[in-house]
Write a structure and sequence with these properties.
The structure is a single chain. About 70% of the residues lie in helices and about 0% in strands. The radius of gyration is 24 Å and the shape is globular. It has 13 helices and no strands. The two termini are about 20 Å apart. By secondary structure, it is mainly alpha-helical. The chain folds into two domains: about 15-60, no CATH class; about 70-280, MetI-like (MetI-like fold, Orthogonal Bundle), CATH 1.10.3720. The longest helix is centred in the last third of the chain and has 33 residues, at about 250-280. Helix 1 (about 15-40) packs antiparallel against helix 13 (about 250-280) and helix 3 (about 65-75) packs across helix 13 (about 250-280).
């Protein structure tokens, strides 16, 4: 039996150094926009308008964040209300999309019925259309349902996002053998127990990835043309209104960019580690 120490990759130290340098360059290039955005948030206005622009701040200041919090305090609707609206929309929209997509994908992957292939073809076709194309039909439907100017106008369409269904269907087909499901049915497990206790744990990378995508999409949602009441507006809408004050608020805009990045990046970092761990333990990384 070959030990782990004897099983070594046949590559030189020079090759390792080249790979390491390449990975460092790729990581630096990837992190460059984030570093630039953070640097801008701490620049005074005199540095923000320099040409050519500087990557790093020379005279860091907290004035941009102080001005932002001052403007937020002057809002006639408390900023905590905007934040609460965003959290409600993000949490319910993301959870609903994961549940709806995974349940529909489970049925399409494990059941054979007339029209299943046609339905999946329509799902794939829907991925080709941008949101701007379906905005008017969505508005008409939501207006007929009486959901305009409510949370449902943003949350319910998120539940029907076909990207999650496509992603979950592909993972279930690849990760769940039919024999495992049949064995569970023979042992007396009902369909919901099979879905919740067998399918969902084995497709964890899929729904964690879906959480990241939906969270990012809904966190930046301003409500658009569906929400009109100021008490129901989201945090991105309120911050965008502050930024639209002209050239003098460019520093505030840079601070807003950093604040809006913090939560999505945090969610991505947390879920990314779980995705890598799950892929490694499930054998997908091999």
């Amino acid at each position: 039996m070959i030990s782990i120490r004897e099983k070594r990759l046949a590559r030189s130290a020079g090759g390792d150094a080249v790979v390491l340098v390449f990975l460092l360059l790729a990581a630096s290039f990837t992190a460059l926009p984030i570093v630039y955005a953070i640097s801008n948030a701490f620049k005074p206005l005199s540095e923000l308008f320099l040409f050519p622009p500087r990557l790093f701040v020379r005279n860091p200041t907290l004035a941009n964040f102080q001005d932002l919090f001052t403007l937020m305090a002057q809002s006639w609707v408390p900023m905590t209300r905007y934040l609460l609206n965003s959290l409600i929309i993000v949490s319910l929209g993301t959870a609903g999309n994961v549940i709806a997509a995974s349940m529909a994908a489970y049925v399409l992957s494990t059941r054979r019925f007339i029209g299943a292939n046609l339905f999946m073809g329509m799902v794939v076709l829907s991925l080709m259309f941008a949101q701007e194309v379906t905005a008017i039909p969505n508005y008409i439907i939501l207006a007929r349902l009486g959901w305009i100017d409510t949370y449902a106008a943003v949350i319910v369409p998120a539940w029907g996002s076909t990207l999650g269904l496509y992603l979950m269907r592909k993972f279930i087909d690849a990760m769940i053998p039919v024999e495992l499901l049949e064995a569970a049915r023979i042992d007396g497990a009902n369909e919901f127990r099979i879905y919740w206790n067998i399918v969902m744990p084995n497709v964890k990378p899929a729904w964690l990835t879906l959480i990241i995508l939906m969270f990012q999409s809904l966190w930046g949602n301003t409500g658009g043309h569906f929400i009109y009441s100021e008490q129901l507006k989201t945090l991105p809408y309120a911050l965008n209104q502050i930024v639209e004050g002209g050239v003098a608020r460019q520093g505030v805009g840079a601070a807003v960019t950093v604040l809006m990045m913090i939560l999505p990046i945090t969610v991505f970092v947390i879920n990314q580690s779980k995705i890598i761990e799950t892929m490694g333990t499930s054998g997908m990384a091999n």
